[in-house]
Structures are given as structure tokens and as C-alpha cells.
């Protein structure tokens, strides 16, 4: 009922405004057009100046007001480089934003029309064109050079000692598989997936024997981590907001992203004064109805704690592989025969 | 008719000459199956406005969900039935709304409303042509557009809802009919509709190019063309070269979905089983990235298809209402040309984190940031055009000034997104949403409003729109648009991803409750304000004030030499010849010097009013 009333009142407001405007237009015709034009020019010019001043204040105020909610300083090594680029790009764009807006609205205000006046005929100036072609070009090239430098470092080959972890996206969750002691991820294939081999691992590959699964993404402090990213069904995107990490997970095309975590979860909790704080893994590529709900907790430990945690994990092979020791042994056996028959 | 009677005057007394252009149309041939470019322009515009109401309304609906994710609104259940049981919208429906909002606004509103409407209206009128090169194909262009629209519209009423894979429709999400609720018939209709839309665009574009190149009136050299025409010309070129690529992409996707091919599919495990072909073999070898390349090869030029006509019209309107020549006409032409060429070489900047080879990405960074250069040139030229002008604040002028402001604000954030390293944290966050809405959606919308207010008398028999209501419309829309999209930058700085049904599942993203409410309220206010425009528009068609003179804005271009009520053929007598460029305002002490008056007759037509200002 309230909604209907709201809709009706909006409609009535529109009708009233419309009628008032029509009357205003008629009044203008009676009072003389020239005077009305001058009055309108003054009004609009003043409104533009008010808009400029209030708008600029609102922009600055709101940016300061909301900045505590922005992501804290990045928790990865390359995140710091990106922040540096952010800084320089802000330096290049904020002055342009203010200067062009001030000029635009100031000119609009200053040169409001007066009947009988003639504008200044100024059709071109090659000097000016060269100036404002070359300066933006130089700034852009500087930004590209800095950007490329970082881009190649970020996307370059991961260090050999990087901890290898695999993230597999599917509707609507992430599977996390660690490479284990040998730091080699065992081969896998979608064609091997079955109830008895839920991750499609190829048990002929010894690399698979020590791989283990985790529900939480544990990362070691100050050590490179190589994420191997893939997807089972549709596109997903492996997204760690606090680490400036984002890479699509593509069925059929493995992707990767390596980075170095630089702050433990505990450090962040102290820094933000929030004992509840957790790093989070999200999906950043539309993947269906629960796209917004593919959360996993990420924990960064000191190397010591990380190693302790590693030691406590048990490989997938103990549950599903050929050497499985659990109650599901029987199914595991049939899986094995299936694989050999392949 | 072929006499070169110079200085053809625009007196209404020419009506008697009208005889040999009369076609004795009935209602259907005149207003429905019309081949007159002006009627087709009206058809595109009115269809576009209806689509705009639908498309923006969808955004209001999903903004309600984002502002109040935990509350239920019984009215939603009344309106939407099973899609909002208990007054709460379902995620499937949310994603359908997002998908349809994007598709409708980009293709059916902005492409049709700008290029479809104004290319059709202005190319013949400003070039001095009686009609398009092929009026029949021009008519077909509209009818394909309408059918595409009707198919898209009908998909909204399907049992399982409309397509919900995003306006980009990336496979495999769009390639697997069961991956989303609307992925079956909804997605099929989406693809069919897009294919028809592309056909429509191609027919329109070919016509525009042919007309501009071959049919300009005597004396109208390319470098005397108004910037509007240059913009429409390059827009059409972009469309003709890039739309076929999307058509190919869409057809391959149709094949993947319906005929068992695997262009985009590979190694897929879905709903508990491996995707196999008819022979039970696993499907492999396709590439989801292929679709992204094909899609963005159109998708990125598409934003220039939307923004270039707006730029052209804004250039013309700023110049006319500042009573100054557009500053750096040649530079403006070459910058449009540069944007056109570069627009084909930037598509992969949408794919920096898609798994693309980093080297390929780096090439696209360079080209993407370079496209900022011609854009910057345009902005500086607009600002200099206003400088020392004698500005008349018509509603069109206000929207043109608003356009420049929006284009600056949105363009600058593009410098962040175009740099691949910075794109890593920003990609697919609200920073992107803020960027492209400001620079492309709102700016293009402003260009469209500017065009409608400026050329309304040429669209609808010499009637004008109500101005006071237009001023209210402008100010609320300008302030409201900034209120909607400016705060989204802040969400982006917190890394809040776009296309999220709710932000509360994550500690990191759920911190903006109040700001999301603010954005939604602003969106509702702006949406309601647009009805002022809609009212004004339809009211003025029938009851608007008649313009007092044939050239109400004292403009130089040829469309203002036509009579109040335009017949098919535009000029009752001979087509005027052209003697100079289109933007000669305040030259040699004359307020304006129309293109069609030869130098020798200028004094009779348009006396010097003041000493030229040096």
C-alpha cells in the first residue's frame, strides 16, 4: 500500500512540476524573451559554480571519510609495487581532474551569454594542439613504462622454491590442493573423476601420493606461493583482495599466479585492531546463481607455524588412492582397476 | 530542381513546390513501414526510450536488493510473482536483471538511441541529401532492430527467466544450458536477438557510410562536414568492421549450445559428469578465451560506437551555443580517426587476468593508454571552445557541458584500469562499474539528451520541448548520476566485486551498508526524474511550443534550412549548396555564418553586428 502511495505521489509531483514549468514558459513569453534569456543565463551559470564548489568539497570529503574502509596496505610483496603505481597514477590524474573541471565550469560561468555581445573568434592553434597531445602522450608512456616493469615482474616465472598450491573452481566452491612434501602437484584429469576419485587424480603419477586437500588456504609468511588455478565447469576467478591477486580459472586452460605474502593473519588483526579479521578468497568472475558466495578463509602463518600445519595434514591418497586405508577401501580398489583399464 | 539557385531561402512560401515530392502516403507507409530517414529516426528514438525505461527500471530493482539485502518488500512479490517469493528477490532473478540491464542499455538504448536515431536524422539533413543511399535497407535496419528487441523482450517472460550470464555471456556459463536458470531458452533467445541486432546495425552502418561518402551536396567537402557527421561516419565504420566478429562469435556459441560443436568448451566436469559428445568422447580442445577475444573485438569498439556520436553532437552543440567555432576542427577530426583506429587494438584490456599471455597483455596496455591521448585532445578542445564564448544555456548546452564533465571523470579512471598491473586488484570490482558507467553510459546518455533537446524541432515538426522542466531534469540527473556512481569508486578501492547478489557473505566486502543505501536512493530519484523527460518528450510532440523562427539556435548547419514540417525529400526546392565549414560563429563580426550563404550575399542575410573580437 505504501509503495503504491509512493508511486502515485511521485507521479503527482511530476505532473505538478510539469504544470509549473508550462506556466513559467508562458510567463517568459509575456515578459519578453531577452530578459528571460539573461536571467536564465545568470541562473544556470551560478548553478554551475555552486555545483563545482559543492561537488569538489563533497568529492574530497567523501574520499577522506570513506578511506578508512579501503583495503589496508597490501599483504603481498607485489601489492606494494601496485600501491606505488596507484600513487603515481593518482598524482597524474587528480590534478587533471581538478584543473579541467575548474576551467570548464569557470569558463561556463565567466562567459555566460549577453545579448548583442560577440564571442572571440578562435578556431585553432597548432601550438596548443601539439602541447596537449604531447604532454598526455608523455605521461601515458611514463605510466606504461612503470606498469610494464611491474607487470613482467608480477607475471614472470615463479621462484623455484615457491610453495605450490592448486585452486579448482566449481559451482559454487573452491577446492584447494597442496603439492605436499615433494612440492609437485600430481597429474589429474576430469575424465578420472568418480565417487572414488573425486579430484580426478592420476594415481600412476607419484606426484599425487603426498598431495593433500585443505579447507582453509594456509600460506607461509615471506615465502613465494605459486597458485595453479583451474576450473571444472565454468569460468571462475581466484581473487584475494588483500593480496592484490586475481586470476581467472578457466576450464581446459590452466592459469597461475605467484606472490609473496608479507603479513600474517595475526599481524593484520593487530594492525586493524579487529580480532575477528580474516583474509578471504572470493570468486570474481560471474559463475552462476551463487557466484557471490564462494568464500574460503585464508590464513597466513609464520613459516614455523605453516610447517607445523603442513605436518599435520594427511594426503588424499590415504583416503582415495590405491593405498587408501580408510573404510572406503573397497570403492578405492574399484577405482584403481578403472584407471588401469583406461 | 537541379538549378543551382544559391542562397536558397528558407521561407515557408516554398510549400507550393512540394508537389513533386508528395507520395500520397497512407498511415502505414508514412509512419510504420516508412522509408523516410526522419521517420526511421523517430522510430529508433521512441523504441529506445521505451527500452531505456525498462532497462533503468531493472537497475532500480537490483539496486533495491543491494541496498537492503535482508529486508523483504511485498510489492516485489506483487510485481514479480515467483521471482520474489516473500518479497525477496532470488539470485537467479537478480542475475537475469543484471544481464538484461547491460544488454538493453548498451545495445537497445545507447546504440539505437544515438547512432540509430541521430545518424538517421542528421546525416541526410546536415549533408544536404534527400534521403539515405538506400531508404529500403534503412527501413529494414529498423525492423530488424525491432524484431531483435521483441525477441529479447519476450525472453523476460520465459518460465525459467531471461539469460543470466552477464551481458558479456562468457562461455562455458552461457554455453551450458543448465549452468544458469535462464541458460536454456533465455540464452538462446538472447543469442538470436543479438544476431538480428547485428544485422540491423550492419544495414544501418553501410547506409550511413555510403550516404556520407557519395551523396553530399554541392560544396560540402569532407572537411566542411559538421563534426556530428564525422562522428557518425567513424561510428558506422567501427560498427561495420567489428559487429561481424561478434556475429561470428555468437553463431559459434549457438553451435556449441545446440549443435554439439566445441569451439569454446574443453575438459568440463559439470553436474557430476564429464561433458561428452554424441559418441561418448570427452569434449576437449575448445577455448573459452576465444569467445572473449571475439566478444571484446566488438565489445570494446562498441563503447566507441556509443560515445563517438555523443562526442560529435556535443561538439556541435558546444560550438553553436558558445557562439564560437569548435576549437581545432581538424584536430577533432583526426582525434576521432585516431580513436577509431586504436579502438580496434585495445580489446584485450578486458582480459588482463583471463589467462591471456602476459606479453600480449602488455601490448594492449600500451595501446589502451595511448587512446587516452586523442580523448584528452578532445576534452581540451571542448574546454577551449567554451573559453571566451558567449554562452547560451539551452537544455542541450547544459547536457553537453555535463557530458564533458562526465567524460573527464570517467576517462581518468580508465588510466588506472588500462594499466594491467593496476587492473589486477581493480578488475571486476565496483571501480570498473563506476568507470564505465560514468565515461560511457552516463556520458552517452547526456549526449543523447543533448541531441534530443537540440534537434527536437527537426524530429517533430518544428515543436520545442518545455525548457524549465528540462533544466530541472538536467540538474537532478547530473547531481544524481554523480551520487550513484562516484561512491562506487570507494567500493572498488575496497575490492568489492561486481555482480554480487549480496556483499554480506564476506567480511571484506560487507562494510558499505549505508553507502549502498545512498546509491540506491540516488538511483531511484534519478529514475523518477527521467519521467519528467519522458512526459516532456511525449507532451511536446503534440503540444510543444512551435519554434518562432526556422533556425531557433541560430546554427550554421543545413538542417535548419529545411521547412518546419519536413516532407520526404527534406527540401521542397533545390538542395542548398555549401560555401564554408560548419562551425563559423562570431567570425568577422557576424554572430553566425550559415554554410549555405555565399560570401557575396552574407551582408543581406546576416549583417555584421559588432566589431570582431580579437
Kindly identify the CATH topology of the largest domain in chain A.
Immunoglobulin-like
Q: What's the shape of chain B?
A: globular
Integer tally of domains of chain B: 1
Structural class by sheet pairing and helices of chain A: alpha+beta
Q: In angstroms, what is the radius of gyration of chain B? A: 25 Å
Residue windows where pLDDT falls under 50 for at least 5 positions of chain A: 327-342
Report the portion of residues of chain B in β strands: under 5%
Query: What is the CA–CA distance across the termini of chain A?
Result: 66 Å
Number of helices of chain B: 17
CATH topology of chain B: Cytochrome C Oxidase, Chain A
Shape of chain A: elongated
The average pLDDT value of chain A, as a whole number, equals 89
CATH class of chain B: Mainly Alpha
For the largest interface, the chains and their residue counts are:
A-B, 120 and 139 residues
Mean pLDDT of chain B: 90
Explain this structure to me?
The complex is a heterodimer of chains A (342) and B (614). The N and C termini of chain A lie far apart (66 Å). Chain A folds into three domains: 7-70, no CATH class; 72-112 and 125-156, no CATH class; 163-341, Immunoglobulin-like. Chain A has seven helices and ten strands. The model of chain A is unreliable at 327-342 (pLDDT under 50). In chain A, the strands form two sheets. Chain A has a five-stranded mixed beta sheet with strand order 3-2-1-5-8, with no helix packed on it. In chain A, strands 4-10-9-6-7 form a five-stranded mixed beta sheet. In chain A, 46% of the residues lie in helices and 16% in strands. Chain B has a two-stranded antiparallel ribbon with strand order 1-2. Helix content of chain B is 59%, strand content 2%. The longest helix of chain B is centred in the first third of the chain and has 37 residues, at 91-127. Chain B is globular. The chains are: A alpha+beta (342), B mainly alpha (614). At the A-B interface, helix 1, helix 2, helix 3, helix 4 and strand 7 of A face helix 4, strand 1, helix 8, helix 9 and helix 10 of B.
